[in-house]
Amino acid sequence: MAPRPVMLPVGTSVVLLDIEGTTTPISYVKAEEDVPLDGAVPIPQSPVDGGGDVEQVIQAVVKNVHWQMSQDRKTTALKQLQGHMWKAAYTNGKMKGEVYDDVAPAIRKWREAGLKVYIYSSGSVEAQKLLFSYSIEGDLSKLFDGNFDTTSGHKVESESYKRIAKSIGCLTENILFLTDITREAKAAEEAGVHVCVVVRPGNADLTDDEKLHYKRIASFKELQLPS
Predict the structure, then answer these.
(1) Are residues 102 and 85 in the same domain?
(2) Which of 87, 97, 185, 218 has a CA positioned 20 to 30 A from the CA of residue 3?
(3) Contact 195/189 with Cβ under 8 angstroms?
C-alpha cells in the first residue's frame, strides 16, 4: 500500500523533524541505535591527573573514537566531536549538507501557515546547524525555530518528547513528529505526540502491521494543511 496524502492533525502547532532518512538521505548521515560496550578501548588518565605519557593518551583517544565510529555509537561526546570536525569541512567548502528537494518548500509553507518547525536528531545541535547552514539548497538554518539532540534524551524514549514539548512551551498533542524510524514513532506516540513515518529510498522497510498503523508520506509535499 503506497503512502497517501496526510492531513495535518487538528491542533498541530509544531512540526518536529528527524534528519536521517527524513530531511536527508540516510546514506549521508547513518543513524543507528547505540550498541553494547563489548570491545571498548579504554582511555588512560592524562599526566595532569597522575596518569601516563601524553602520546599514549592521545593514541588511546584516537583508537576509542575509531571504535565508537565502527560501532555507530550515539554518545553525546562523539556527536559533539563530529560537529567540531564537520565545522571545518563545511566552512572550508569541502562539504555540503544534502537535503531532499521537497523539504525547504514544504517548511516555508508550514511557517507561512503559522507553524513552528524544530529539528530533533541524534546528531549534535552544532552538527544539525552546520548541515542546514551549508546545504546544497543554501542556508536553510533560518527555517527552524530550534534544535534538539540527545541532551534532551534518546529518541526511542517517550520522556524525551515530553521534555521537548515542555521546552517549546506546548502540549505533546500539539506536535507532529516526522521520522523514518518506527521505534522513534512509537516512543513519540506513547508521549501523546502525533507521528507520521517518512518513506524514502534507502530507509528500512516497514512491516505490514506498521504500514497499517502509521500514517506515511514519501515526500513532505504529501503533508497537507487544513483548508
Answers:
(1) no
(2) 97
(3) yes
Q: Domain check: are 114 and 199 in the same one?
A: yes
Partners of 109 in the β-ladder: none
Q: Residue 11: inside a domain, yes or no?
A: yes
pLDDT digits (tens, 9 = 90+) for 82-97: 666 667 777 777 778 9
| 3-class secondary structure per residue, 51-81 | CCCHHHHHHHHHHHHHHHHHCCCCCHHHHHH
pTM of this structure: 0.77
- Same domain for 12 and 101, yes or no, is yes
Note whether 134 and 162 are within 8 A (CB): no
> Would you say 12 and 174 are in contact if contact means Cβ atoms under 8 Å apart?
yes
* Mean predicted confidence (pLDDT) in 177-196: 98
**Measuring CA to CA, which residue among 134, 130, 139 is closest to residue 104?**
139
Burial status of residue 110 (CB atoms within 10 A of its CB: 0-12, 13-18, 19 or more): buried
How far apart (Å, rounded) are the C-alpha atoms in residues 63 and 52? 17
> 17 phi and psi, to 5 degrees?
-115, 130
123 in Cβ contact with 79 (< 8 Å): yes
Which of 73, 82, 66 has its CA nearest to residue 154? 73
Radius of gyration of the chain (CA): 19
Cβ–Cβ < 8 Å for 116, 168: yes
Domain residues for 56?
Answer: 47-91
Pairwise CA distance, residues 6 & 215, whole Å: 7
